[in-house]
Amino acid sequence: MMAQYLEIKSRYPDALLFYRMGDFYELFLDDAVAAAEALDIALTKRGKHRGEDIAMCGVPHHAAEGYLLTLIRKGFRVAVCEQLESPAEAKKRGSKSVVKRDVVRLVTPGTLSEDSLLNARSHNYLAAYAKVRDDHAFAWTDMSTGAFHVAPCPRPMLGPMLARLSPRELLATGPLAEEIREQVEEAGATLTELAPASFDSQAAEGRLNTLFGTGALDAFGQFSRADLGAMGALVDYLDITQRGQLPRLHPPQRESAGKAVQIDAATRRNLELTRSLSGGRDGSLLQAVDRTVTGAGARLLESRLTSPSTDLGLLARRHDMVAHLVGDAGLRDALRDALRRVPDIERALSRLGLRRGGPRDLAAIREGLKQAGILSDRLSALADLPDGLTDIASALTGHGQITGLLDSALVEEPPLLARDGGFVAAGYSADLDEARDLRDSGRARVAAMQADYADKAGVSALKVKHNNVLGYFIETPATHAKKMLSEPLSATFIHRQTTANAVRFTTVDLSDLETRIVNAGGQALGLELQVFDTLLDAVEADADRIADAARALAELDLAAALADLAAAEDWTRPVLEDSRAFEIEGGRHPVVEQSLRRQGASFVANDCDLSADGSEPRPIWLLTGPNMAGKSTFLRQNALIALLAQMGSFVPARAARIGIVDQIFSRVGAADDLARGRSTFMVEMVETAAILNQAGPKALVILDEIGRGTATYDGLSIAWATLEHLHDGNRCRALFATHYHELTALAETLDGLHNATVAVREWEGDVVFLHEVRAGAADRSYGVQVGRLAGLPPAVVDRARAILDALEENDRDGGGKVRTLVDDLPLFSAAPPAAPAAPASSAPGPLESRLRDIQPDLLSPREALDLIYELRAALDADEGRGTGG
Questions:
Q1: DNA mismatch repair proteins mutS family domain: from which residue to which, for each copy (predicted)?
Q2: Burial status of residue 27 (CB atoms within 10 A of its CB: 0-12, 13-18, 19 or more)
Q3: pLDDT at res. 531
Q4: What's the pTM value of the predicted model, to 2 decimals?
């Protein structure tokens, strides 16, 4: 056995080998040590190899999926080795023959298909990156749904592509693999190296034609050699990992350059598109806008959100669907109610195509197509539907034949595994019904046969019995033997055995019944498995149309979800056009607004006009104001509004007119990258450099506090030059927030620069944030007041205020030397504050006494008002006495 194990293991040195032995998957030697530690299970030993104990651990085969998930999440690959014959079959070759085993599947992060290993609301992408001469291509597929795409991807665009798709595993070869390894692993993907032959474009073309049953790929589009290499590597890897059982993939779709909004990794992180800065889904834009009710709809939402479109026609189609459902609440609610009953058809279809699915996957397709028919009937009965909903209704029709077959063949709630049986409905197969009847009612059949034989023989003492030697037999007392052995009964009853007191017989019918009863259980399961294979073939034959229906259901779910969101949150349809307009009226941040609502507060909406095509171009707003006033929120909300509009959603604003944005860049917040030796300021400069080097005229850029991580004059200089470059070089729409008030003077020399500030109000030394963005410039940053609100010790606040006053006075006087300020404000003048003086008298005054006697909860509104007048009169009288004195 160990010889067989070692031979199989030698073919999969980089994977843990799950070696099937009866009801367990067992692991040996180094695999056992690694798995026991990763899974926190017992490590034991079994026999010796080369004089040393063989380490061993194991997991039950029926619970293997949970262990696989843990191992995959910890970065392992697992080769699943199954028994290909029974021990009885092996013994036919000799008593010491080892059961045949082989690997049937290689489980890797990018090749998962089981529901228990996947997140129902997220894609699980396997990607490949190929280079042919100077041409690069990025291909990706989700084996669990069949999605298959390819796009040109120059080397600088690899990072944004990884950030957009978040693949679980990426394939590459040769020097290119080593070149991108660090970048891929930073993106959270596993890098898998393949031989160069896997990326050969000529061989790839053959693989793809074989997979899709075509003679040429022209019907799918025009692909470059790099495209073919990347797609071919995916197919080759799937063939390797699935041991020749390729999943069902959709025809490849080539994504043209410029069809999606370019968003780099830093911007996705800063805008918290799919994950908040803390790393979780809560607090992200995706969490705030997700009202989908199906897994496929949720995956489509995530895909649209991470890849907004620049196609005006496509976006108009999406907005038309949302608008129609916003206007018809009854239809929207009815659609969403039906969609809640739709299982995940995409993933069920994929598992069945891999011959890895079960009866529940067939039931999922049945139930999904049933609801598709209901939804189609509902939509088709309506007039004046937008084109998108009409096309969806068409894709959901015509599935009656396959639905009828699955409905008649399957029970209402089938078991998970086909091998468990019991999933075929009664009445579907006469042979199966008979086998089940025999299996479940064998004793009743025997009893009925006994009564029939007793009546025929005229022997009331006749019994049908069973033992392990004879099986089923007929037994009569010896006194009746002569009658049974004579004509005409001897033609029916065949003598088998004579004992001292009885004679035993059998009949042809009894022998046949015995055989059928003994084999009924196995026969019933065998017949059910035959039905299962027949149903699989029927589904496979109709797979293209089922897949189209699944995609239509996802599209409908997303449109209805966005409509529900727009209606509930008072969002409006944006006007998109091919221009450089950017006018937002009453814009709001969707995530912050929902958070404030939970706290019982309201969000202050603000306008933004970055249009660059009017008589007074203002493509850049310079935003000043204190921290905590809402500058970062204002910056982010406008970027999110553009992104939501171009994914096909309504937007959180009273009105929005947006010229198509082809790039969104964000530099907001502070972060370091210590692993690569980058300080916070270095990260800021790297991200700023990427923006200035890439942003084009149709880009939208938001920058917050550029230059704050270095000395004041260095930072001011960098911010100044950056602002000028955005204005004169990039000539893009931008929001630029800063504390460098000196920059506001640039509005006099830069025609496209518009000063704006976040309004605040001072009251008794404190600052009150109004969160309103107005035209103009802030004259101060209120940092000391914010420090006070944050809880700095009073001594620190007072000291800071004194230093600030001195610095401002020094600046008004033409600027003195810092040394002079240090001399005037020596370090030791910040002495610890003295203990507060005791009050002159411990006796309370009349006002204090009056206040202490008041019970606020017992006052009516009128009594409270009267009390205020009373206290005010007492205060005035007290002040008069003080003045007179």
A1: 699-715
A2: buried
A3: 94
A4: 0.82
Q: Annotation-wise, does 383 bind a ligand?
A: no
Q: Is 174 annotated as a binding residue?
A: no
- What's the confidence (pLDDT) of residue 821? 47
Residue 530: name the closest of 418, 413, 438 by CA.
418
Secondary structure, 3-state, 49-77: ECCEEEEEEEEEHHHHHHHHHHHHHCCCC
627 is in an annotated binding site: yes
Using CA atoms, how far apart are residues 590 and 637, in angstroms rounded to an integer?
7
The gap between the terminal CA atoms of the chain, to the nearest Å, is 109
- The token duo for 160 is 């944004």
Nearest-angstrom CA–CA distance, 873 and 404 = 86
- Is 630 assigned a ligand-binding role in the annotation? yes
The reply to whether 308 sits in an annotated binding site is: no
Listed in sequence order, the residues at least 6 apart from 603 whose beta carbon sits closer than 8 Å to its beta carbon are 588, 589, 592, 593, 596, 597
Residue 632 in marked binding region: yes
In angstroms, the CA 591 to CA 282 distance is 10
Q: Is 628 annotated as a binding residue?
A: yes
Residue 342 CA to residue 332 CA, distance in Å, equals: 16
Point out which residues pair with 757 in neighbouring strands.
624, 774
How far apart are alpha carbons 427 and 408 in whole angstroms? 8
**DSSP reduced 3-state for 469:** coil
Distance CA 425, CA 344 (A): 23
> How far is 236 from 220, CA to CA, in rounded Å?
19
| pLDDT profile of the chain (885 residues), mean per 10 | 88 92 90 93 85 89 88 91 84 80 92 87 94 93 94 92 94 93 91 93 92 88 93 94 89 88 91 89 94 96 96 96 96 96 94 90 95 94 93 94 94 89 92 86 85 90 86 89 86 89 91 83 88 94 94 97 97 95 95 92 93 70 80 93 97 97 85 53 83 92 83 82 90 91 88 88 67 80 66 74 70 52 50 51 68 79 81 73 48
| 626 has binding-site annotation | yes
Q: What residues contact residue 743 under an 8 Å CB cut-off, 6+ apart?
A: 622, 716, 719, 720, 723
Amino acid symbol at 417 = L
Cα separation, 661 vs 234, whole angstroms: 32
> Distance between CA 67 and CA 61 in Å, rounded?
10
Helices (H), 542-630: 543-569, 590-598
